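Review form for a predicted model. The reviewer records the input and the model, then writes brief findings.
Reviewer: anonymous (R2)
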Amino acid sequence: MITPRYDVITIFPDYMSPLSLSLIGKAEERGLLTTKVTDLRNFATGVHKSVDDTPYGGGAGMVMSPVPWGEAIDAVAHEAEADGYEEHTLIILTPAGRKLDQALAYELAQRKHLIFACGRYEGIDYRITEHYSARPQFKVMEVSIGDYVLGGGEVATLVILEAVIRLIPGVIGNAESLKEESHTLVDEETEPLVEYPNYTKPPVWRDLEVPTELVSGNHGLIAKWRAAKARERTEKLKD
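Model under review:
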């Protein structure tokens, strides 16, 4: 059985060290998935291993060259194909991409091989998107994690991987918890809701008490309270 594989291509491999920590690291140790980080500069030529150049048409900043990117993506894909992966989803991180949400996280969690292209500067030459979109074994997705600009795609990649990998069966100890998360809960109109507030011991902290409904032992009352609070929280976000 082929487990999910996640390849990250970046000029800062050390940036991805958190992949060995917490849920992701433990899941990989258990054989539930594979992660691999590739240094883009290994595919650059010249003394300085340059991966960028000035933009055609003028303008500020530098654009990442398609030459090393093409070589790196091909190498990663060929290695994955040798291990039995027949299709690849190339994710190009860009503020101009589709915004990450829980629906997209679920969609990506169904795909066996994701390749993350961590752009820098003014982004990656658009011919990378055009070239791989035309190759049948590739699906190209431009993805953003929000309406703001970061220094590069590494942080965004970590965010996406965290959102995706926790959805893989076996990664979360109690799979039932996934059904009651923010943006997963639905009310009677099937509107995605954020999660209700949660409390734990002690029952009183700094004169603040846990809501009486949660300590009542009445499961129907608890469910009703949680549903109401989830809707209330969701409505506040709309203001």
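Findings: The first strand starts at residue 5 and ends at 10.
Further findings: The mean pLDDT is 90.
Recommendation: see findings above.
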